[in-house]
Amino acid sequence: MHKPTVADAHLRKVRSFVRRPGRATNAQRRALTDLWPRFGVDAPQAPLDLTALFGRAAPRVLDIGFGDGEALVTTAVNFPDIDCLGVEVHEPGIGHLLLLLEKAGATNVRVIARDAAEVLPQLLPSASFAAVNLFFPDPWPKKRHHKRRLVQPAFVADLARVLVPGGLLHVATDWADYARHTLEVLAASPDFTSCDASELGAEPLAFRPPTKFERRGRRLGHEVVDLFYRLLPAVPSESSASPARSMNQNSPMPGSATAVVKR
């Protein structure tokens, strides 16, 4: 399991997360030791060979900050023809995901325990993912912390590089200000154009199971917003990408599937 080195620590001076050590259960700690060799990626300082990593060529989803992994494993089990690469830094969440993957018998998930803002430029080859999921990122609500928000112009440019043309970017948040922030950053990007949830139909790549953070947000009375974008062709049009049009919390999510995690 990758442990950040001193050199890693200097790659980015502004972190989009806070490490929360010491909360893993005994079972999670066992999973981090015993199951990591099966699902984990001890990433080198070079682009990964994703076909070799998964043992096949298939559409791939990059899941950034998967939390406790419930949504990720539900997606993986319901869509076995899609390969999922999860990136997370919170070790208890990684351990929980590993336990769920073992219980579900999933074989189409790999995990990187490292900051996504380092993984994207250093480890992921260009045009290698059909979709990127960014579900309920840390909202950093205080204005002085907005610079820590993961959705920034440079990060969006990295997402554009790893997506295939026409690839899907799906951002979900229960913080209205973070939704506005995302709209502004993506509207300024020459690489993406918005799309409505109704345009996606039952596309598996657009599927989002409920998450722990979503349930907590709804209990607090927060509106959950899903924003969808497509990567434009290599030569973008002169017009700028328009803001995402669908912000209706009651809109049906694309796709349907059976949850594999009891809630």
Short description:
By secondary structure, this protein is α/β, with parallel strands linked by helices. It has helices spanning 6-9, 26-34, 36-39, 50-54, 70-78, 91-104, 116-123, 153-162, 176-187, 212-219, and strands at 60-64, 83-88, 109-113, 129-135, 163-173, 192-195, 225-231. β4 (129-135), α8 and β5 (163-173) form a beta-alpha-beta unit.
Task: List the SSEs and their pairings.
Blueprint: H1 6-9, H2 26-34, H3 36-39, H4 50-54, E1 60-64, H5 70-78, E2 83-88, H6 91-104, E3 109-113, H7 116-123, E4 129-135, H8 153-162, E5 163-173, H9 176-187, E6 192-195, H10 212-219, E7 225-231
Parallel strand pairs: 1-2, 1-4, 2-3, 4-5
Antiparallel strand pairs: 5-7, 6-7
Helix pairs in contact: 2-6, 5-6
What can you tell me about this protein's structure?
By secondary structure, this protein is α/β, with parallel strands linked by helices. It has one domain (27-231): 3-Layer(aba) Sandwich (Rossmann fold), CATH 3.40.50.150. The protein has ten helices and seven strands. The chain has helices at 6-9, 26-34, 36-39, 50-54, 70-78, 91-104, 116-123, 153-162, 176-187, 212-219; strands at 60-64, 83-88, 109-113, 129-135, 163-173, 192-195, 225-231. It has a seven-stranded mixed β-sheet, with helices on both faces. Helix 8 (153-162) links the parallel strand 4 (129-135) and strand 5. Helix 2 crosses helix 6 and helix 5 runs parallel beside helix 6 (91-104). The longest helix is centred in the middle third of the chain and has 14 residues, at 91-104. It is globular, with a radius of gyration of 17 Å. The chain starts with 5 loop residues before the first helix and ends in a 32-residue tail after the last strand. The model is unreliable at 4-14 and 245-253 (pLDDT under 50).
